[in-house]
Amino acid sequence: MNVSIVGTGYVGLTTGVCLAYLGHTVTCLDTDEKKIEMLRAGRLPIYEPGLEELTAAALPNLRFTTSYADAVPSAEVVFIAVGTPSRTDGNPDLSYLRAAAMLIGDFLGPGFTVIVNKSTVPIGTGNWVESLVREAAPDGRFAVASNPEFLREGSAIEDSLFPDRIVIGTDSARARELLETLYRPLVEQRFAVPPFLSRPAGLGSVPVVATDLASAEMIKYAANAFLALKISYINEIAELAEKVGAEIGQVAKGIGLDRRIGARFLQAGIGGGGSCFGKDTAALVSTAASYKLEMPIVAAARSVNYRQRERVVEKLLGELKILQGRTIGLLGLAFKPFTDDLREAPALDIARKLTSRGARVKAHDPVAMQKAKASCADLPLIYCERAEQVAENADALVVVTEWPQYEALAWEEMRTSMRNPLLLDGRGLLERQRMERVGFRYFTLSSGARAAMKAAAAASAVVGRGKWSGPEALAAPGR
Fold it and tell me: Are residues 271 and 172 located together in one domain of the fold?
């Protein structure tokens, strides 16, 4: 099929490359000329494991443009995958979506076109997009559908090719049939698996949830909010466990092995970040408020998640007593490993809290350093090219992102280069006994955090796959 993708961020670019790899003819459109020039030159604007290799394999079916006139008229399916960032009131900014919808309407061809909202949008947006397109193309032959994504950054290729489900929301039978045809290779798993991945054992076919527009939009928000609840729930339990002397690793294992609950997203630590959960839970609360409804459970999950960042500062204050003039080293900037995404990254929030108290903050990340330097000019961070440099003359180290390479650092040498051998492991990545053996004062946000991570990784092999920024990502293949 002939497909166009409007927007070449994580969702748009991954979707376009995967559909081209499956044999469809795909045009990726973006109004950012520099980004399109990069893509035409074979360079990616984002870091995503496997995406470069898959793009090279899909290149015969893939092209890039900045022109709606070039991308839209001949397309049978047009995906809208533009950004919908949060506004200050919690509602998403739909200005990019509005512009895309109007321009698609301006350039619709004579054939029937399915216009698909791939961006995460408030419930009811599909009807609004239809009205915008209809305004620009009153005689156009088209239908609007919602096809939400459920990608985890760092494993977006795997999640695209081996999804848990495909959700198609539309009131048009013809649009549903076209999208089911588009996705048939995925549904039936009839494609050659890229060499850097392996098809999950037992995956014979992928379920398709065919529903109306509003229900599809609601599925996306409801799924993300529920996963956010699990993360905040285990962090709240972990804080109580620390007070009463319970082992949160054993608690997480004990409840996670219950198949009704599942082990995914029960990893205590600093909490989540990224472009989805914070934005989507804020939008859900805001949408409910517009109907004079409250969502106290979702609101509480947001509050608990952001409190974890403040707890890092509180823990450091408890140990150091004074932060002004201290040097604090942060290991990890990206909101999770295997990505360079800094949106809602806990590390940046923690760094701002520390610098506002007069601390000197050093930082390292394996892939997100250049993006941080470009996008965080207001934040007085000292960037270290090597992780070991973060420890030099530091009063404390904080593991913020659970990059696996941090486990292999020369920790004994790092300890001797510090002024004060204090290590706050915010992700439960490291072995307490090992760190204490080399001379660190080791502590976490909750006792037994590493045990929780290990238990979750083991249990996830039994109960299935999940999503978001917890340590479970380290246990999955191909990341």
Answer: no
Domain count, the chain: 2
Enter the tokens of residue 180. 């089911």
Candidates 18, 276, 376, 384; catalytic one: 276
Neighbours of 76 (CB within 10 A): 18
**186-196: pLDDT as tens digits:** 999 999 999 99
Q: Is residue 293 part of a domain?
A: no
Per the rule left: phi > 0, alpha: psi between -120 and 50, beta: everything else, 245 is left
Distance between CA atoms of residues 361 and 371, nearest Å: 17
Instruction: Note whether residue 216 is domain-resident.
Output: no
Q: Is 461 contained in some domain? A: yes
| Assigned domain for 271 exists | yes
Q: What is the pLDDT of residues 339-366, one digit of tens each?
A: 999 998 999 999 999 999 999 999 999 9
Q: What is the pTM of this model?
A: 0.83
pLDDT tens by residue, 63-81: 999 999 999 999 999 999 9
376 classed as catalytic: no
Domain holding 95, by residue range, is 2-210
Please name which of 351, 308, 356 lies closest in space to residue 330, comparing C-alpha atoms: 351
Rounded distance between C-alpha atoms, residue 6 and residue 104, angstroms: 9
